[in-house]
Amino acid sequence: MTASAARTATPKYGKGREALLRAAVDVVAQKGLRGLTYRAVAEAAGVNNSLVAHHFGTRDALIEAALLWSSEQSIGASRLREAAENGGTFTEALLELLLEDPGLQVFQYEMILEARRRPELAGPVAALYESYVGALSEGLEAFGFQGDVRVVARSLFAALDGLVLQYLAGVGREEIAAALEEVHQAVLLRRGAQSG
């Protein structure tokens, strides 16, 4: 795509900063972190690459912003609290959290692995995990769970993390849903033990 075509093309993901974040996530999900360049993000978003630099300044700032954005998108997709308030099931809400947008999950795993090589990403990756644990804690509380909810949420997220990896590795949705239902039953047993 020529520079003039990039300036006049309609962005695939909408406009502005969020479109660039979505494009960054997609580029990393498809090409890995080494494929993340201003040019690749701009091309995916259908804009001029100077717009990427304008919004983020540095590649590291783009990475950190995309990591935060991706967790917000995943957590927003789960609708855990809404499921509790509207009579939905915990399993359905968690399945949405896990499988709604696999590209978001691939991007996040890429960042987690990269944090092992680049210590400056350790803080944003830790914040990613804390945001998931916080969302699960709120979801557990909405479903009537009591006690040390954060410990249970962290344990639950560890199971979910593993199931997402399995899904990305090719395990079928039905098998993931069945395993998730088993995790849910364990949570219900724990909740029942608390109230009994």
Tell me the CATH superfamily of the largest domain.
Tetracycline Repressor, domain 2
Percent strand: under 5%
Order of helices and strands: HHHHHHHHHHH
Number of H- or I-type helical stretches: 11
How far from one another are the termini?
A: 65 Å
Given helix and strand content, the structural type is mainly alpha
Portion of residues within helices: over 70%
How many independent structural domains?
A: 2
Q: Please name the CATH topology of the largest domain.
A: Tetracycline Repressor, domain 2
List unreliable stretches of 5+ residues. Answer: 1-14
Tell me the radius of gyration. Answer: 19 Å
Shape: elongated
Tell me the total number of β-strands: 0
* Biggest sheet character: none
CATH architecture of the largest domain: Orthogonal Bundle
CATH class of the largest domain: Mainly Alpha
Protein name: AcrR family transcriptional regulator
Pfam families: TetR_C_31, TetR_N
InterPro entries: Homeodomain-like_sf, HTH-type_TetR-like_transc_reg, HTH_TetR, Tet_transcr_reg_TetR-rel_C_sf, TetR_C_31
Keywords: DNA-binding, Transcription, Transcription regulation
